[in-house]
Design a protein that fits this description.
149 residues, alpha/beta, 2 domains, four-stranded mixed β-sheet, 8 strands, 26% helix
Length: 149
C-alpha cells in the first residue's frame, strides 16, 4: 500500500536487489518512485544507475484524504514526506479543512522535476501560507510548515 494523490493501482519503481553491489551505494535500496525517470535522474547526481537496474511492481495507492477518512484521523502532530518527487501531488491533494496537521516536513528538491525547484514548490508554499502555516527552510532540501494555532 502506498499513499498518493488518488485511490488507484500505480506502478512503483525501485532499485533491483542484485544491482545494489554493482552501484556501490547502500542507500540505493531505499530509492523508489512512481516515476522511473526520477530514479534514473540520480545517475548524474549520485550514482551510475541504468534502466536494467530498475524493477517495477504495481501497488494499491490510497489518497491521503482516503487514509484520513478510513482511520478516522482528526489530527497529526508531525507529517514527514520524502517521497521522491510525489510531494507536490500529495500536499496539493490534502483537504486541510478536514484535518489538523500541526507540522509538515517535506523534501523540496524534487518539486519541479529531479533536483529542481520552481512553480510547483511556489504553489505549495502559497497554499500552506493561505492555510495558516509558517514556512521554515530547515536546510537545502527540506521545509517545515508549522500551523499557527
Amino acid at each position: 500500500m502506498a499513499v498518493g494523490s488518488e485511490d488507484k493501482i500505480v506502478p512503483f519503481y525501485f532499485v533491483k536487489k542484485n544491482s545494489l553491489s554493482k552501484l556501490k551505494k547502500h542507500w540505493a535500496s531505499g530509492i523508489g518512485s512512481f516515476n522511473k525517470e526520477h530514479i534514473l535522474s540520480h545517475r548524474t547526481k549520485r550514482f551510475d544507475i541504468k534502466e536494467d537496474d530498475i524493477d517495477k511492481i504495481n501497488v494499491k495507492c490510497l489518497s491521503f484524504n482516503s487514509l484520513v477518512e478510513k482511520y478516522k484521523i482528526k489530527s497529526i502532530d508531525k507529517l514527514m514526506l520524502d517521497v521522491e518527487g510525489a510531494e507536490y501531488e500529495i500536499l496539493k491533494s490534502i483537504n486541510y479543512d478536514n484535518i489538523l496537521i500541526k507540522n509538515i516536513i517535506f523534501e523540496k528538491k524534487h518539486f519541479d522535476g529531479p533536483f529542481k525547484e520552481g512553480d510547483k514548490l511556489n504553489e505549495i508554499k502559497h497554499l500552506l501560507t493561505k492555510k495558516n502555516y509558517n514556512l521554515i527552510d530547515l536546510d537545502e532540501e527540506n521545509i517545515q510548515a508549522e500551523k499557527k494555532l
